[in-house]
Every structure is written in structure tokens, then in C-alpha cells.
Specification:
alpha+beta; 3-stranded antiparallel beta sheet; about 25% helix
Length: about 230
Amino acid sequence: MNYIAKILMNSLYGRFGMVDNFIISQIMNKEDYDKFEKLDKNNSIIDVIDLDDNLLVQTKNQKVELDTLLDNSSEIHNINIAIAAAITGYARIHMSQFKNNKDYNLYYSDTDSIYIDTPLNETFISEKLGFMKLEYVCKDAIFLSPKVYSLITENEIRIKIKGLSSKALNEITIDDLKELLIKDSKFEANQEREKWYKDISSGNISIKEQIYTLKVTGNKIKFIYKNEKLT
């Protein structure tokens, strides 16, 4: 139940910010398409892709979109961008008190977590909703990029690399991550699984091995190097 509640809290608010007039894709033979096109009074067809004897037809209800833009109350949508924006906005405001705190050094942070070098004030810690929870006490840690890091505790070594398969992750060591602290270094890991790539225009599906390239990225973090090594 805790996991279900967490997923609902983390993702449900995002639905308020999504357009609910989705594109519908369907495959039909060319004879049926002629009939479909004649019955399409709302001009919903936005793309047609030839697939030999069949067609991939993409449609979107243009009337619904037009009525929504005119805002004449003829369409009701269970969305509210203000709600989605407010939730993420207030979350950033709440986390700013931890990110801009001079009582400790902040090494890494994510949506709802921080990694610091001193115990957090007990007033912020609780099992109640909205409070911080102490997850780990680390002896050492390596932070390379968002959701790519390693934690070394008294009892275990935890390595997190977003997008890497579990089998490939088990073969990565702390030494591999330390090598990435050197400027412009990178590491390639074989996912040991094949990925299907589809080409709708040609109607082909190709199967290729998936290679994961791991390197330090500074799109959300400003790195400081000393003697060509991340400090």
C-alpha cells in the first residue's frame, strides 16, 4: 500500500497538466480507409503512412480541440495546468530550504532527497508525510550526474545508474565510477539485451544490441575540476 500511495502522489498530479485529446493510431486496409475517410466529418485524419497492403492512420478529434480553444463550455476536461505547476513549484520552494542551507555541505539532491555531510536538524525528520527520513549514513560516496551515484555504507555498496539493466549494473564496480571522475572519461556497458527499433515509414523492425554509455554530464550540476579530476 505504501508503494501504491507513493506512485499516486508522484505521478497523479502530472495528469492535470497533460492534454487529454490524444492521437489515435490504427492500422486498416486500403479498402476500409476509403470508407473511413468519407465518414470522417470532423476532419480528424492528421497522417496516413503506407504499410504495403495496409495503412497506418493517425487521427485526432479536431472538433474537440477547436471547441476547447474557443472555450465555449462545450467541452469539459479534467485537467488544470495550474494545479500541476503549483505542486512542482511548492515542492521546489520546500526543497530550497535544504539546498540553500549554510549549516552543511550539500553534495547531491534529487526531487525529495539530499546528501549532506552532517546530521540534519531533528525537526525536519519524521515518519510522517511531508518530512525527511534518514535513509543512509555513508562512509563515502560518488556523485556523477542526476540519478547516477554510488553510496558506501557500513554494510553495503549501493550503485544507482538510471536506465541501466540490473544484470549490467551488477558488473559495475566502484573503481569503474571512480575512473569517470577524470575529465572527459566515459564507460560503455553492454545491456546484454536486444532492443527493437521500429521504422513506421518503411514498415521494418530491426533488432540491435543496446550499449549504455556512461559519462559525467553537467546539465544540472556545475562541476569543479582540479588537475583534470572532479573534486
